[in-house]
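User: Modeling request: complex.
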Amino acid sequence: MLNSGTIRWNHVLGRAFIYLMLGAFALYYLIPLFVMVVTSLKPLDEIRSGNLLSLPMQPTFEAWGIAWNSACTGVQCNGLQGYFYNSMIMVIPAMLISTLLGAMNGYVLTKWKFPGSNVVFSMLLVGCFIPFQVILLPMAKVLGMVGLAGSLPGLVMVHVIYGLAFTTLFFRNYYITIPDELINAARIDGASFWTTFFKIILPLSTPIIVVSTIWQFTQIWNDFLFGVIYSSGEQQPITVALNNLVNTSTGVKRYNVDMAGAIIAALPTLFVYVVAGKYFVRGLTAGSVKG
Amino acid sequence: MVTKWLERIMPRLVLAPTFVIALVFIHGFILLNAWLSFSSSNLMPKYDWAGFIQYERLFANERTAVAATNLFIFATLFILICLFLGLLMAILLDQRIRGEGVIRTIYLYPMALSFIVTGTAWKWILNPGLGFEKLMHDIGFETFQFDWLVNSEMAIYTVVIAGVWQSSGFVMALFLAGLRGIDESIIKAAQIDGASLPTIYRKIIIPGMRPVFFSAFIILAHIAIKSFDLVMALTGGGPGYSSDLPATFMYTFAFTRGQIGIGAASAMMMLMTVMAVIVPYLYSELRSQRHA
Amino acid sequence: MNGLKITNVSKTFGKTNVLKDINVEIADGKFLILVGPSGCGKSTLLNIIAGLETATTGRIEIAGEDVISRDPKDRNIAMVFQSYALYPTMTVRGNIAFGLNIRKVPKAEQQQIVDRVAKMLRIEDLLDRKPAQLSGGQRQRVAMGRALARDPAIFLFDEPLSNLDAKLRVDMRTEIKELHQRMKTTVVYVTHDQVEAMTLGDYIAVMKDGIIQQFGTPSEIYNHPNNMFVAGFMGSPSMNFIPCQLTEVGGEVGVYLQGHTTRFFVRLSQTGKDYSRWLGKNLMFGIRPEHITDYAEQVGAQEAIPCKVDILEPTGPDTLLFITLNKVKVVCRVTPETALQHSIDKMPLYFNTAKAVLFDPASGLAI
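Assistant: Request completed. Predicted assembly structure:
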């Protein structure tokens, strides 16, 4: 009797310990977000008098307004809004084009293999592994040659090209699980290459389309490397503008504006994560096992 | 006739743009960059042959050693801590936890953020005057000092802190998927043999997850070598150039200091480093696939 | 008119010959079975008939027309796949009508055809469901419905029953046979199951290593196998192969068989073949389990031989006995009553030598 009682006690203690640890980890991940939010809602004097975790006495959205409308990002002082729209204008076409191309590539690479198709795939896959530093200089030259240097269309092109390896990989790995017999059935039914793609394969692809678009959306939205190198002035994406805002050294450092700006820059991808987290994680594991 | 012919070559037609992209924008560009690294390019790219002069300049530069040392420190700590925390959290989460979904969501959300956002947030948290230090003062540790962000000896460690915060949840997800993939009947057999839970983890489950360790290591190493945005947002490579990493070094030389040749050479060195990590991995992957 | 004519078809992948010089011809309306172990090339041959794979050499004629250079859709064929290959995003109706749609059959006519096929297969209630909502047997019917909707010159079946459970498989087998008798369309049917082959086929082509080992009617294949492979592959339990030496005793050709306790002589005069050339040679004595049995009346005049039984396996309708002859395990089939009546040390068994086949062990060919 006594013995089994001890075992039960040990069990309860063990469970309590596990939950305590898990809670501590959750706090570790949440506190920075909490700090960002409360800081963005505090006036500057409260920031100086309080500390990271102290709640705002008089919550105000003033810093958000400044970050959106009038904060200086280098020479201009028009806030982040223009850059937020820039990122949207850049992300949406880049995401859609690279996903569509990836789907078509995956379809050919799994269902219409021809001698050499696997070579093309291997050549493309290298793009998942290389550090992009190694293509930055030649790309800058090519963008200059075709007159897209420093522009959003140029950035769209760069993101489509270097996202293609990932989207192709997603679709190839998904389509490889679709039985070839389905394609054979369609061929005997008389369906052409494109009829099979649009009527049979694409309707089956919803989950992987979601994974691919979400992956591309977060990758492109969060990109800084291509943005800082291939865009300039009014055409910059939000990550670059945020970095400029935070590092603009004129006048008083306004931490609340920095935090509001950071949250604004993070909101779209956070929103996608909360709404479609399952697909986000699937893309993450599928995409990054390869890099 | 024409439609029939078109139908036959359609697969090739569809893949053709991708072929061109891979050939030109990946492989061609790597070769072009290699050429630049052997040229005399400075402010403007020049396509001539200058031998190893850029590499000599690169290795003669004192910033190179700093960036390489920093990469070593950052990569080692970043990878080890992420693996440890990730595995620990995954094992804890694997104990039939109520609310697992919510907890997982919380652990993973930093992965959805831009490194610029993460850097901005941690730059504020680690702020020497008003950040973490002030918080500790307010709690009662009045002599507490924390100035890593502006201390050239310690700045690289702040990058580790922010990097771990962003990526460890993802490693947890990888390990959790690995744990869930283990055959339940093996665990049941071990339980019947009388093994305790810690023994089962130590002797059976964790050794069974070698491939997960391996791929997590590769991914983290890859992230570490490519790290650019986080340093830019958090320390800007400073104070001075004390927290430079190869990626920021390359950017600085190629795009702000007009030393294109050195930039190209450093990019080649980064490529070599990545290859040194990934080629053996790919090789073993391919080999095990062939055996399977 | 020819239903199907396959002339000199070969297929090589790199250096491996998947199919070697295949020649088959069947009349219109016949049911042809391609049977063999996995990897024998039967599915490749079916895919070549369908046009899904190309032959390295050879010709294919369907209903008298050379189709070798035509696309699958222009060969006037319909096919039922092993995994059914139903389009997952379409309803049953959409699946059946898809081929008609692509061929631009008018909507009203499509409707008619779908209804007719659905009635024939008794799937009227399922027309608006998606494949995922169907059971295995129902999916199988829909897959057949999709083929039937097209009224082709030839039906191709690729192991259509192998994903069904045992009972359903027997039911569907009967139904396929009924359908064929009603429709009288040529069928090529691939299977690895010799029972399906025996029950369904008008003709059977037994394949191995890319070669047709024997082509013939089910009874020819079963009773007069060309070689040891065909003899062993068709029939369950398999034919027994007993090593022996051909001898002549008192003017009668036969073989000696050595059991645990008895040694006896089996005469081969009833097979009606001339074995004189093989006297004194080592041969394989092939005999099916049902031909070592207790039904005296089937076997004729020969006397029963008492054998010691090693293992006894009742299967229900009959009982399998395992005895040892010339140091190999031999299966016999008797009625359960006989098995119970006699001592297992002295089970009286009759050898129906009229049905026995002798093989040359070197070539494996029947003598």
